Amino acid sequence: MPATPSLRQQLRHLVRQRRQLLSPALQQQAANALAKQLSGNALLANKQHIAVYLANDGELDTFPLIQALWQLNKTVYLPVLHPVVAGYLLFVRYNSETLLYPNKFGIPEPLPQCHQLIPVNQLDIIFTPLVAFDEHGNRLGMGGGFYDRTLSQLPPDSHCRVIGLAHSCQQVDAVPVEAWDIPLKQIITPGKNFDFC
Question: Is Disulfide bond included in the keywords of this UniProt record (predicted)?
């Protein structure tokens, strides 16, 4: 579907409202179902370095997933706004003792300390948030382009698997796409695994 800024904004507004209307009980149920589904998934079997986001604005809560990854002895990383190159993300190691500070959007993130950073192409999996997705793996984000710019650094033959996480109510008939949008090969909801390979 061809994109226009107003069409993308309307869709973003509509789907953000949908997920914000989910009750705390439904949010918790979805978060637990996602963690359970992924912790027993062969997808994680030989993967060590895994980037996950912290939920914001009604996004699918990843904290139960993060705890499950820690129990599996995986190394977890969080996205951090790049302090020097605007519009890009860095990935910083995250454990139960990591201190978090709100960024300019109010999202908690660790300090970007050099010894805790990992280059994006060394990650095995990047779990990304999204606002809306369609049956072709097209992803509509919040509009800042942070993930699109950062993921464009991955070489075409990268071993890193980029997987979107979403509530099922975030699926739409068609996402209006722009030239810079990077479709996802996989999107996981609490009840379904969409594989677009």
Answer: no
DSSP conformation class of 41: -
pLDDT score recorded for residue 96: 92
Total count of domains within the chain: 1
- Candidates 71, 75, 68; CA nearest to 92 is 75
Query: Does 3 score more than 60 pLDDT?
Result: no
Question: Alpha-carbon torsion 42, 43, 47, 52, what sign?
Answer: negative
Q: Which of 113, 123, 128, 157 is nearest to 56 (CA)?
A: 128
SS3 78: strand
CATH number of the domain bearing residue 178: 3.40.50.10420
Average pLDDT over residues 165-183: 88
The two three-digit tokens of residue 196, written as one number: 């677009």
Whole-angstrom distance, CA of residue 186 vs CA of residue 193? 7
Give the span between the Cα atoms of 119 and 124, in whole angstroms. Answer: 11
